[in-house]
Design a protein that fits this description.
- There is one protein chain.
- This protein is an alpha/beta fold.
- The chain contains 4 helices and 12 strands.
- The chain is globular, with a radius of gyration of 17 Å.
């Protein structure tokens, strides 16, 4: 089954955009292969605001925009989903193909995380403190445990890429003979 991966740049203090919605603080490390990353996906999920800023960022990818206000007839180049979010994600997961990129933004991440529809969280932490802006995970949100599965440091820019699996609620820890184990 295809995975939904939230791959996002964020500041060290947890913002995905600055106080005025700016992204000029995101630096691309010369060692980071964005083309290789994007080749891992064939479907892009985004909220209305991200879509209005980026449009269709990767030609050839299926783009699904979650919005209660956009009309499908006005945007034939993408699929607009206004309700039944969880069902739409399950349908996408059941299709054959590559992983699904949750491209933005924070509110869509919050909604999909609450529904249990996010498999991995992959923040690229940019070494900057913004002091405010759009948070990685806007309040109110659910609490989720994460399991670190990978990390990479890009020394030229100081960017740190972390990869976490979202712990499933049915994977509760069991204690046996004094040792905690994942179910």
């Amino acid at each position: 089954m295809r995975r939904v991966r939230y791959q996002v740049a964020c500041s060290l203090d947890g913002y995905i955009a600055g106080p005025n919605g700016e992204y000029d603080w995101i630096v691309m490390d010369p060692e980071f292969n964005f083309e290789a990353l994007s080749s891992e996906f064939d479907t892009l999920l985004m909220g209305r605001r991200t879509f209005e800023v980026t449009g269709v960022p990767f030609p050839g990818m299926k783009v699904v925009v979650y919005s209660r206000t956009l009309q499908q007839t006005s945007h034939p180049e993408v699929t607009i989903v206004s309700d039944h979010i969880e069902e739409s994600i399950q349908e996408l997961r059941a299709q054959s193909g590559k992983d699904i990129w949750l491209f933005g933004g924070g509110e869509l991440f919050r909604s999909l995380l609450a529904l249990g529809c996010v498999d991995t969280v992959e923040p690229a932490i940019i070494p900057v403190l913004l002091g405010g802006g759009l948070p990685l995970l806007p309040a109110p949100s659910v609490r989720r445990s994460l399991v670190l599965t990978g990390q990479r440091v890009y020394m030229k820019t100081g960017t740190v890429l972390l990869t976490y699996d979202v712990a499933r609620s049915d994977a509760k820890k069991r204690v046996r003979k004094g040792k905690a184990r994942a179910a």
